[in-house]
Amino acid sequence: MSNPTNKKALELLFERPLEPIFTARDDGKAVFDIPDSFYSEQYSDVKEDIQSRFTEDVDIKIPLRELTKKPDLTFTHPVGKRKQFSLFNSLHRSIAARLIDILMSAEDEDLFIATCAYVKDRVNPFLFQYCYAVAVQHRKDTKNFEIKPIAEMFPQNFVEPAVFKDARAEGELVRNTGDRRHIDIPRNYTASDREEEQRMSYFREDIGVNSHHWHWHLVYPGYGADEIVKKDRRGELFYYMHHQIIARYNVERFCNGLAKIKILNNIREPITEGYFPKIMSSLNNRTYPGRSAFTKLHDIDREDAKLEIADLERWANRVIQAIDQGFVTDNKGNNIALDPKKGIDLLGDIIESTQLSVNPQFYGSLHNEGHNAISCCHDPDSRFLEDFGVMGDVTTAMRDPIFYRWHGYIDSIFNRHKELLSPYEDADLAFQGIHVSKFEVRIQTASQKASANTLLTYMEKSDVDLAAGLDFGPKGNIYATFTHLQHAPFEYAINVNNADNVPKRGTCRLFICPKSDERGTLLTLNEQRLLAIELDRFTVNLVPGTNNIRQSSNSSSVTIPYERSFRKLGEKYQPTDERQLAEFRFCGCGWPEHLLLPKGRPEGMAFDLFVMISDYTGDEVQQTKDQPSVCGDSSSFCGLKDKLYPDNRSMGYPFDRRLPEKTLVELTDKFPNMSMIDVVIRYNDVIVDRKA
C-alpha cells in the first residue's frame, strides 16, 4: 500500500499532462523536488530560476530519487511529442508496449515514481499517460490506486473547443472557485438536424461512453508483458463488450426512428456518412480532421502507417473461411477447433488483433487496421500533413457514426461463428425445480407507488471538472456542464419458487429486447437475440418454497455509477469505509449508469423484459485467488481485477447462440425458470439538473 507521499505523487502525475514535471500542481500547493538530471535539455540551463519560482509558497515538496541508470527512450521518437498517439497503429502499439515494460520493471514504488517523472517530459504526452495508467493499473504496489478519468486529463478530446476559452477566462477573472460559474457545453454542436445521424449524437458524443471505451482498452491492452495482456477470456470480452455497444446503438436508432446500421462490409464503396468532430488535440492545437460524405478508403502510405485496402479484404476472407471450416491454423500449421467454449475467445484475439493471436502474419489485424484506414481516409498519404481522424483514437472513436458501421461488420463476423454453433438444447437452458412465478419492474419513487412495468428516461445536466487538463491555466476547480440521457431509478421484483426440498443457487440474468424495429415491424427471436441488451447479472440463493428477489437498477453488473465515471481525486473525495473504498478504486471501466436504458419514445416504446434463473452448477467459476473482488459491479463488460471472469457460461448467454423456439413467448412458456413481461420506456423531453 502506498504511503501518503507516494499516493500524492501518483495523483499529481495524472494532473496537467502537458506541463513539465517541475511545475506546481494541486492548485499550486504541491511540487516535485526533482534531481538536476531530470530537467530536459530545454530547461536545464534555467533550472535554478525554475526551482526558485515553482518551489516557493507550496505546502508539499515531494522529493524524487535519482536514477542510477536512466532509460534509453530513443525508441519513442517516432511518436513525436506533438504527434497524435493511436492504439490502432502497430508502430505506436509496439512503442507503448516497450515503455510499459520499462515502467513495470521499476523495482519498487519510489523508483517507479521517479522513472515516470523522468520519462514524462521526454515522450509524447498521450503515450506517457496511457503507459503510466496501464502500469499503475497492473503493478502490485500501485494497482489499488484510482485512475483519473480521461475526460479530466484531456478534456479537449471530449468538449467543444469554445468552452476552454470561457473556462480559462472564468478561472483568471474569478479567483474564488466557489463563485465561478459552470461553463455550459452546447448540445448538437457537430451537425444540424438536416443530418439525420445527428439524432444519435447524445449517444455517440456522450462523455461517459467515450471514457468507458478508453478505460476498457486501458484495462485490456493488446500488447505488452503476458501479465498485462494474457487475461482470462480477453478475446471473448473484446467481442462481447463491442457486441453490446452495437446492440445498444441499434436499439437507440429504433428509439429515434432510424433503421439499424448498414454494416461496412464493402470497403470499396464510398462512406456515405460525413463527420466533422469539432474537437481539438491539445498536443498541437489542431482540430481532429473531418470526413466529407462519400469519402472513399485508399491505401495508406504514411511515415508511421502502411496499409493496402486489399489487406483488409484478404484478412477478412481468411477469418471467414476459418469460421466456415470450424478451425483456425496457428503459426506452426496446427489446426485449432473453434468449439463453443473457446472458439469465440480465439477469434477475438485474432480479429482485434492482439499479441495473443495464434497467427498474426496470416490473419492480420483486421479490426485495428480498419480503424487506421478510416481514420486516415481524408489524407491517406499525408501530403497535407493532417493527423488521423477520431477513428484513430480510442478516446474519440465512438463519436463517429462510422465506428458503429465498422464494428457492426466486425460483429457480423463473430456472429457468423455463433450462428454455425448448434442451438442451445433444453438441458442447456433448464433449471429443474425452479419456477419464476412473478416478475415486474417499477420506478423507485420517494412519494407514491409508481405503476408497474413503465420506465422513464429524460435529459439531465451534470458537471465535469476541467481543471486538471487545463495546462498552463488557472488554479482551482473549473466546471463544465454537459447534458446527457438519464433514467429514473427502478427496481426488479422477481418471485422464484424452489420446488425441491434443498436450497439451491442460481444466477439471475436480465435482458431487455426491442419488440419491433423503427417501422413497427415485429422482430423474430433470432433478430431479438442480436439486439438483446444485458441489464444485470447476479447470484441468488434459493431456499425451498417462495423467494422474493428485489434488485435495484443501481446495482447493475454492467454499469459503473456517475461518481466513478466523473469522480474527483484526492483523499477528501474518497469513501472512508474500507468496503466502499475497495469498490471505489477499480476502476473507471464499465458502461455509464446513465445509459443503462435505451431512450424510448415520448409516446412510449414497447420492449420485452426477460429474466432467467440459470443453474449455478453450470455458472460457477472456481477462482484461483481468494482476495475480495474489487469493483466487481461492472463485471459483465470488464471482468474482475486479477481474477477469472465470474461466469462460466458464454458471455451473453442465453442470447449468444440460436435458441430452440421461434419467439420469446414460446421460449419463456417452455422453461419455467424464465419469464418475460411487456414494458414501456417513455422519454420525457425535459432537462433536469443533477442533484448533488
TrEMBL record:
Residues 400-411 form the Tyrosinase copper-binding domain. It is found in: Secreted. GO terms for cellular component: extracellular region. The keyword Transferase does not apply. Pfam families: Hemocyanin_C (PF03723), Hemocyanin_M (PF00372), Hemocyanin_N (PF03722). Its main location: secreted. One of its GO terms (biological process) is melanin metabolic process. One of its GO terms (molecular function) is metal ion binding. Belongs to the tyrosinase family. This is Tyrosinase copper-binding domain-containing protein.
